[in-house]
User: Fold this.
Amino acid sequence: MTIQRMDNVLIVVDGLDAAVAFFVELGMELEGKMPIEGRWVDRVIGLDDTRQDIAMLRTPDGHGRLELTKFHTPKAISAEPANAPTNTLGIRRIMFAVDDIEDVLARLRTHGAELVGEVQQFEDSYLLCYVRGPEGILVGLAEQLN
Assistant:
């Protein structure tokens, strides 16, 4: 076997508290927050004099994790336009399975989330949609139909 599991996905943000609140509202559980700095992290990520705050969140089943990071130094840079469309090269979205897509949408809207297109049904299997969260983070929601 070459890998054991996918451990986590990293999203660099400028507003760490708002991003944490958004993903907690979605249903993720905050494992912890802490500052990270030092030569060891500089060597791992290939940057000098890094100072960052991270928050680690996990899905309720404990299998998926999301790391949110705010860089203090060096300052984070934008590699793409704000609110890049879904056909932009690179990682575009994170998809979450949810119990009630309309309820989740209503709760996320209180955190500034905006529906990208429409809620659509895929065959007899799923209701699907994309929302933009804090800082333009694209999140997919999928409700499995019975």
Q: What stands out?
A: The helical segments are 16-26, 39-45, 101-109.
